[in-house]
Amino acid sequence: MDPELEAFVPLFPRADLTDPVAERKNFAELAAAIPPPDTTGMEIEDHTVPVDADAEVAVRIYRPPQPRGAVVWLHGGGFVMGDLDTEHPWATRMADASGAAVVSVGYRLAPEHPYPAALDDAGAALAWTAEHADELGVAPERIAVGGHSAGGGIAAALALRARDEQGPPIRFQLLNQPQLDDRQETWSARNFTDTPWLNHGKIAASWQHYLGSAPAAGYAAPARAADLAGLPSAYIASAEFCPNRDENIAYAQRLLQAGVSVELHQWPGTFHGSQAILSAEVSQRQIAELAAALRRALAD
Predict the structure, then answer these.
(1) What percent of the chain lies above the pLDDT cut of 70?
(2) Where do the Alpha/beta hydrolase fold-3 domain residues begin and end (predicted)?
């Protein structure tokens, strides 16, 4: 493990997701400890987007000067944690470093709202972004989707559903350590039982909360999709000591075999979510790479 990251491992609280409400509180406290980003010159607005007759989703818009495009951004948290406030440091940095308008989505959380609630919320946010592209100052053909961890999995599912249902066109997928496969059959998913922050048990609990008693169906687990052809090009980042590592690499390979352009970056010495340790040189490179990939994808 990268020595700069390893020094922080003893400081991480043990978490198994058996009590999502308690873990949300812990997650919020960890996010609050991250140094606040500089928002000078950036427009930040909150909106509420209707999902259906019974639901709506909160979104927060981060608009840098003259945005080159937009990304519908889904936060991490194992489908059960996270919100617009915990994602604020990352959404701000992404908007500033990439030059894209970031539409951060406060999707509904499991287990209170299992699949497909989060995906429906993301779909509503994507449709809203496309409809309001002019107001955001971006071209509707320059809209990407992306996210961390569970949010990356939802973003991948959103790209699949938009393809199948002829939804708003998506230019690019930005998937950071995405949670894609509920089957947990890969080597990393089976063997990483004591890795920092995310391990086999925590992944199993996360999927249980998200899926409930039903097996994965539809777009719940993107790795189960039989056909990946026709999807937007993608940047996929994986962490060496992360249960999601092998499914991330396998998904990238399957996209390539389906004719989808992919940039895959496997970060050595890192663990799931370790980019949050901003003092580490490798974390700084990870964040810069994510932003640079989005900037390239949305360029003319």
Answers:
(1) 100
(2) 71-274
